[in-house]
Structure formats: C-alpha cells, structure tokens
Specification:
Elements: E1 5-8, H1 25-34, E2 38-42, H2 47-56, E3 64-66, E4 71-75, E5 86-88, E6 91-95, H3 101-111, E7 117-119, H4 125-132, H5 138-141, E8 146-151, H6 155-169, E9 171-175, E10 180-184, H7 188-203, E11 212-215, H8 221-225, E12 229-234, E13 250-256, H9 259-269
Parallel strand pairs: 1-2, 1-11, 2-3, 11-12, 12-13
Antiparallel strand pairs: 3-4, 4-6, 5-6, 7-8, 8-10, 9-10
C-alpha cells in the first residue's frame, strides 16, 4: 500500500497567521507519520526557523524546503547524497536559487536610490515586530539565498522594479502574506517536484505519485496547482486562493489556521480509498 507525500506551507496554513501556534496539529501530525506518510515543509521560512519547528513536531527526519523553494534539505539518515548537493549539518543541502542573500542585499541597497521600499534585514527588531509579531527576528533574517522587502512605492514603480530585477539579475519576486521575497528563480512547485523525485529515486514505489499540498497564500498557488490533491486553508482575509479553472480535487477549510489544517485533511481523507490516517 503506497503512502502519501504531504507538502505543507507553514504561516497561515499549519501555523496561526498571527501567533504562529500549531494548536492541535501536533497530534494529527503524529497520527499521519505513524501511518507511514511523510509531512514535508514547503515554506518561505528560513532553515533556522524550520529546524526549531521540525524538532518540536518530531519531523526532523523529513526533507523540507526553505525560502520559497530556494534551498532544499534532505536528512542524511534517510537519503543518499542528492545530486549537486553539499553536506550541511545533518542534511544534504541543495541550493536552487543562484545568488546569495548577501548579493541580493547589495543589489537592493542600490535599488533603494531609485525605488521606495524597506529591506527587512536593515530594520530594527522593534519595527520588525510590528510587522511579524515576533519577539526575536534573528531566525527570520538568517537567510541564505533571498532577501525580503516591504514595498512602499506606487504600482507603476513596482512594475519597473520587477523588470529591473529580471533583466539585471534574472531575479524573481514572490509575494507572501507579509513580505515580498527577492531571489533567483525558485518556487514551491519546483521544490515539490525535486523532493518528490528524490523520494522516487531512493524509495522506488513506496510513495504514491498522487501528492497532497496545503496552502493559503499566493506563493502556494504553483505548488497547489501541481499536486493531485489541493487543500486550501482559509486565509486571514477570510478567502481562499484561486487555482487554475480546470483543477480538480480541491478541498477548502472553513476555519483559519491552525484548525483549518486538520479540518481540510479530514475532508480529504474521507474521499480517499487509501486513507492518510
């Protein structure tokens, strides 16, 4: 019986958008992994943020993706060396995004002469707390392959900035619920595809090709559109993201995170022949 790969966003999906609580989801996670399924973080959060949460939720032996697919991590205890990866702590690290966070910071400092935006790395902890509700923002700023900004200019300038980003650095911007990430080309769909491929190579037919994904924001759309089962968590605006018009197997929560995470998985599970739990 093939088990499932379950890709999940964190903020606003598995975690409360405002206080980052995972509520009762820890119990559900234990049930899911005890049934031999995999739960894989596919998030805008950094390695430092993920590492702490993975330990709390007892998911440290699962691979995960950080900074919106910029960097992937595979636990050495379970995975052989991944092609083009490097050794990092207890993981094989595969960086997808070409340029480093330092390179992007230098680029953005130059662009501030032309456009009006804030670079999160340059803001005081007090100001960052206003936007994030985090007492300690060090882990959020511990980035490897991206920077995050707050746009304060008009829409016309935004389009020009986006063009500069693409033409000068082959860069992309990814809108999250709070910040805009600036990085080389990457996204959660690419991360999901590469992680799924690694499972296919190393575990053969143990896991189903019918992947599951959960998300609430625009930066989750590519991932949600590319999986078999799409679980949409009601976001902080009280709406669900819109997927492509011909997308099937969509399940929507009526609750916000963290409760919406369990709710939508129950809905999905009721329709599956091979159950998640």
């Amino acid at each position: 019986m093939k088990r499932y790969l379950i890709f999940t966003d964190l903020d606003g999906t598995l975690l409360d958008h405002d206080n980052y609580s995972y509520g009762n989801n820890k119990k559900m996670i234990s049930t899911i992994i005890n049934n031999k399924n995999e739960i894989i973080f596919n998030t805008s959060k950094t390695f430092s943020e993920c590492k702490k949460l993975l330990k709390e939720l007892k998911l440290s032996n699962m691979p995960f993706s950080t900074e919106n697919g910029a960097v992937l991590y595979f636990p050495k205890i379970r995975f052989n060396k991944i092609k083009n990866s490097s050794s990092f702590e207890r993981y094989w690290k595969l960086r997808i995004a070409k340029l480093s966070s330092k390179s992007w910071h230098q680029f953005l400092k130059q662009k501030q002469k032309k456009y009006n935006f804030l670079i999160a790395q340059d803001l005081s902890p007090k100001i960052l707390k206003k936007y994030t509700n985090l007492n300690n923002t060090n882990m959020m700023l511990d980035r490897e392959a991206s920077q995050i900004i707050l746009w304060e200019d008009n829409f016309t300038k935004f389009k020009l900035f986006k063009n500069d980003l693409k033409s000068e650095k082959e860069g992309v911007l990814i809108k999250g619920s709070r910040f805009i990430q600036i990085s080389s080309i990457c996204n959660k769909r690419i991360a999901k595809k590469l992680i799924s491929h690694a499972y296919d190579i190393q575990f053969r037919d143990k896991y189903s090709i019918n992947t599951i994904a959960l998300g609430d924001s625009k930066n989750d759309i590519d991932m949600l559109n590319s999986c078999k089962y799409s679980c949409l968590i009601k976001n902080s605006n009280g709406t669900h993201v819109k997927l492509r018009s011909n997308k099937k197997n969509i399940f929507k929560s009526s609750k916000l995170a963290p409760d919406g995470w369990c709710e939508v998985l129950y809905k999905l599970n009721n329709t599956l022949e091979t159950k998640i739990f």
